């Protein structure tokens, strides 16, 4: 068995690494060009979305090909509240999260009766029909043209540029989302989700109510997607049905698997993959970027079958430590 002296330094190094990453994240917008700041902002947005998907897939063991639909719900809820109701920006964040949570809860009730490929097909259907549904209610959603909105402006006293302000806002919300998710996973509910994922029969014997926790997993996952959708609307200032096609849901799931299921670093690594790899694939071959993107996913999964987070963990373990 490992001694306490051997395990404590490892935990301390993890906290030091997190602190160093946060310090670098706070420093980055003041050193990078506006376009690169925007890219990092979108990485944070996708990280929050993947955090919710990881709760459902990585920690609860449920499959979803419709996560982009809840992302779109958060984005459109925010856009409608800003454009049609003229609500203040801070109020749109909890309302978008709440809207997505309620819809996730409503979807989770019938979804708990399904599993495997059947559940995957039902969630995929949600992602498919959402786009045409948004186009039908043109008076509210703007139809195919979407909605254009003003972005949150930095306070005059801050001296920040718009891109820096949006980045720091998104960073604060993303850090809060990860803290909430971490607290949830360390609680009794988190242990119940892991029990459901590992063995449903054993979990039920131990007193875990499968239907309740599966439904809550969908609701919590949708809530984080709604937060990410709200941040997306703040950052982009525009929403349209074409921004939330079924490809978004598939890309999010692929990014999570590549980043690593069931880890707090997996959503961040997956967000980097989602943000930058499609552009790299486009640069390699303009004619068939999808083919290149797929080959890059295969290459990464061959090198890191448990995701980039798992690969990083194995590399860290190989570093010699003093006993």
TrEMBL record:
Instruction: Report the InterPro entries cross-referenced here.
Output: ABC_transp_permease, LivM-like
Can you cite an annotated GO cellular component? plasma membrane
One GO MF term on file is: branched-chain amino acid transmembrane transporter activity
Is-annotated flag, keyword Iron?
Answer: no
Q: How does it sit in the membrane?
A: Multi-pass membrane protein
Which PROSITE patterns does the record associate with it? PROKAR_LIPOPROTEIN (PS51257)
Enumerate the Pfam families for this protein: BPD_transp_2 (PF02653)
Where is it located?
Cell membrane
Q: What are the alphabetically sorted keywords of the record?
A: Cell membrane, Membrane, Transmembrane, Transmembrane helix
- Per its UniProt record, what PANTHER family does this chain match? HIGH-AFFINITY BRANCHED-CHAIN AMINO ACID TRANSPORT SYSTEM PERMEASE, HIGH-AFFINITY BRANCHED-CHAIN AMINO ACID TRANSPORT SYSTEM PERMEASE PROTEIN LIVM
Q: What is this protein called?
A: Branched-chain amino acid ABC transporter permease
This protein's species is Nonomuraea phyllanthi
């Amino acid at each position: 068995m490992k001694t306490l002296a051997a395990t404590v330094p490892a935990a301390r190094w993890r906290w030091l690494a997190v602190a160093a990453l946060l310090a670098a994240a706070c420093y980055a917008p003041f050193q990078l060009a506006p376009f690169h700041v925007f890219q990092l902002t979108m990485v944070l947005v996708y990280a929050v979305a993947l955090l919710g998907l990881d709760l459902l897939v990585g920690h609860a063991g449920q499959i979803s090909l419709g996560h982009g639909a809840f992302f779109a719900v958060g984005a459109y809820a925010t856009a409608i509240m800003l454009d049609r109701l003229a609500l203040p920006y801070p109020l749109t964040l909890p309302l978008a999260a709440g809207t997505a949570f309620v819809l996730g809860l409503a979807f989770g009730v019938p979804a708990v009766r399904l599993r495997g490929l059947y559940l995957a097909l039902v969630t995929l259907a949600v992602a498919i029909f959402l786009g045409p549904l948004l186009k039908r209610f043109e008076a509210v959603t703007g139809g195919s043209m979407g909605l254009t909105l003003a972005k949150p402006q930095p306070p005059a006293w801050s001296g920040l540029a718009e891109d820096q302000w949006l980045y720091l806002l998104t960073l604060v919300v993303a850090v809060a989302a990860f803290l909430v998710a971490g607290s949830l996973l360390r609680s009794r509910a988190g242990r119940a989700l892991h029990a459901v994922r590992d063995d449903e029969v054993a979990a039920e014997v131990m007193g875990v109510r499968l239907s309740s926790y599966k439904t809550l997993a969908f609701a919590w996952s949708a809530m984080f997607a709604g937060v990410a959708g709200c941040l997306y609307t703040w950052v982009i200032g525009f929403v349209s049905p074409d921004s939330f096609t079924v490809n978004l849901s598939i890309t999010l799931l692929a990014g999570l698997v590549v980043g690593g299921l069931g880890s707090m670093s997996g959503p961040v690594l997956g967000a980097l993959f989602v943000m930058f790899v499609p552009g790299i694939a486009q640069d390699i071959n303009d004619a068939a970027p999808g083919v290149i993107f797929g080959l890059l996913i295969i290459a990464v999964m061959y090198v890191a079958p448990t995701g980039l987070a798992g690969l990083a963990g194995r590399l860290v373990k190989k570093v010699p430590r003093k006993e």
